Amino acid sequence: MKQVGMTIRLDEQLRTDFIEQCRRESIPASVVLREFIKGFVGQKKHKQSVDYSLGEYFSEQVATGKMTLDEAIIAEKRLLQDAEQAETDIINGNGIEATPQLLDDIRKGIYLR
User: Does residue 5 lie in a domain region?
Assistant: First the structure.
């Protein structure tokens, strides 16, 4: 795969702090940035895939008469809110430990209220 360069603008102090932290941890700054970018892109692709799957799931529930359209809309909205809150709690370190599998389960409705 062909590799290309990328230029970003940062506050000087932020750059200095970042480089110092990388040195303390003996990790090249480029590795940290590449891993962040890979994770960010992968997370967004995964979220798009899960959101599409949810739409299919709730459409099927309505089509087969297992849910009314209103019930499906409410359930999907609640499910997405719960998943977003779980992600926020994990990012903020609010005492929740979750794996990608748990987040998938939340989005799929396994943990509906």
Answer: no
How many domains does the chain fold into? 1
Q: Which of 3, 40, 2, 32 is nearest to 15 (CA)?
A: 32
Looking at the domain assignment, is residue 65 inside a domain?
Answer: yes
Main-chain phi, psi angles of 98, to 5 degrees: -140, 145
- What residues make up the domain containing 102? 12-108
Residue 31 lies in a domain: yes
Q: What is the CA radius of gyration of the chain?
A: 20
| pTM for the model | 0.41
Task: Read off the pLDDT of residues 61-70 as tens digits, 9 standing for 90 and up.
Answer: 778 788 788 8
Query: Closest by alpha carbon to 113, among 91, 89, 80?
Result: 80
What phi and psi, each to the nearest 5 degrees, are found at residue 54?
-60, -45
The three-class DSSP label of residue 36 is helix
CA distance 22 to 31: 9
Does residue 113 form part of some domain?
no
